[in-house]
UniProtKB/TrEMBL annotation:
It comes from Humidesulfovibrio mexicanus. It catalyses: D-fructose 6-phosphate + L-glutamine = D-glucosamine 6-phosphate + L-glutamate. This is Glutamine--fructose-6-phosphate aminotransferase [isomerizing]. Residues 40-181, 215-353 form the SIS domain. Homodimer. Keywords: Aminotransferase, Cytoplasm, Glutamine amidotransferase, Repeat, Transferase. One of its GO terms (molecular function) is carbohydrate derivative binding. Its EC number is 2.6.1.16. The active site is at residue 358. It is found in: Cytoplasm. GO terms for biological process: carbohydrate metabolic process; fructose 6-phosphate metabolic process; protein N-linked glycosylation; UDP-N-acetylglucosamine metabolic process. Catalyzes the first step in hexosamine metabolism, converting fructose-6P into glucosamine-6P using glutamine as a nitrogen source. It comes from the Bacteria. The chain holds residues 246 to 608 of 608 of the full protein.
Length: 363
């Protein structure tokens, strides 16, 4: 096992550090440099969806929620994202022009599979976005896009989500170009940024880990965290909170930062830290004003942010600046590393957290 971990203490850490390769592998053979086009021949028979229903569980659900922001804004496709266990029993209205996108790392999650079967029984085409080749969901789907992350061993999903984000971005560009919503220049600029991301991450990962270690020691006694994000950073806030819960057993909740005033703000005090995504993007002024509210109640803040922004918090955590849809690829490993370092410092069983399974094949 030690050899399989490639010198890392845990599979989770190894998989976090594999993310530059994961992005490269997900892009493999899918980008046409000349024309700036995305190639997804596995979908060529399918017209651009008029509406998309994304169905998934756990971390894959968070990836889907992130995809919503891109698919609507860049590809102009109306999107609904559904927790599979709710979708399957809701008797959902599925218009005939809809397409279902089932996201599952393992391709074996029972609730997601039930969503696939429901969609098929209503005559909707189903695309499976899976990691495991030949898995049940990939076999049941009409079309399959593989996220190509390689085997994920750690129960808590890390690199698989990175590959799902990458695949969702490729889908967005693929459909955005076909519908004429995106032009060559827009597509090429995003693809260049995405192709450059593995190098950016390789440079950044060691210092992200060092900062995660420092913060974990500082916050090891905390019993609860509030994760805040806005826009496409909102699903990342949900994922950051999920990772912390899963492996360190510390309570955390993820919230859309604009919703904080409708409840969680009542919890803020000096012993209840906030972990915010405050990046250099269109949402920054709003996020900043939410954080001022936290500070007014003596709440401490860790903020994933970019150099040069006017933000005064206890723990600014600088990440490389990336153009809008790409910032997730640097934020995600920071969130994962923080959860990892907290769990490791607290002596938890990182790769096999209590009560959790890698893939949930029962209800
Ligand atoms: C389990 C795993 C999670 C995963 C979820 C969905 O709960 O512990 O890490 O996100 O299932 O799994 P899937 O294989 O469908 O992506």
């Amino acid at each position: 096992q030690a050899a399989e971990k490639g010198g890392f203490k845990h599979f989770m850490l190894k998989e976090i550090f594999e993310q530059p390769k994961v992005i490269r592998d997900c892009l493999l053979g899918r980008v046409d440099q000349q024309s700036g086009q995305v190639r997804l021949p596995e979908l060529d028979g399918l017209p651009v969806p008029e509406r998309l229903h994304i169905v998934a569980c756990g971390t894959s659900y968070h990836a889907g929620l992130w995809g919503l922001y891109l698919l609507e804004k860049l590809a102009g496709i109306p999107v609904q994202v559904e927790i599979a266990s709710e979708f399957r029993y809701r008797d959902p209205i599925l218009p005939k022009n809809g397409v279902v996108l089932a996201i599952s790392q393992s391709g074996e999650t029972m609730d997601t599979m039930a969503g696939v079967k429901l969609a098929k029984s209503r005559g909707l085409p189903v695309i499976g976005l899976c990691n495991v080749v030949g898995s049940s969901i990939s076999r049941e789907s009409d079309y399959v896009v593989y996220s190509q992350a390689g085997p994920e061993i750690s129960v808590a999903s890390t690199k698989a989500m990175c590959s799902q984000l990458c695949a969702l971005l490729l889908l967005t560009l693929y459909w955005g170009r076909r519908s004429g919503r995106l032009d060559t220049a827009q597509c090429t600029a995003i693809l260049r940024g995405l192709q450059d991301m593995p190098r950016v991450l390789e440079d950044a990962l060691p210092s992200l880990r060092a900062e995660a270690q420092r913060l974990a020691r500082h916050y090891a006694e905390a019993t609860s965290f509030l994760y805040l994000g806005r826009g496409p950073s909102y699903p990342l806030a949900l994922e950051g909170a999920l990772k912390l819960k899963e492996i360190s057993y510390i309570h955390a909740e993820g919230y859309a930062s604009g919703e904080m005033k409708h409840g969680p703000i009542a919890l803020i005090d000096p012993r209840f830290p906030t972990f915010a995504m405050a990046l250099d993007d269109e949402f920054f002024p709003k996020v900043k004003s939410n954080l001022v509210e936290v500070q007014a109640r003596a709440g401490e803040i860790i903020a994933l942010t970019n150099e040069g922004l006017d933000l005064a918090v206890e723990h600014p955590w600088f990440v490389p600046k990336a153009q809008a849809p790409l910032s997730a690829f640097v934020v995600l490993p920071a969130l994962q590393l923080f959860a990892y370092e907290m769990a490791d410092y607290l002596g938890k069983d990182v790769d096999q957290p209590r009560n959790l399974a890698k893939s949930v094949t029962v209800e």
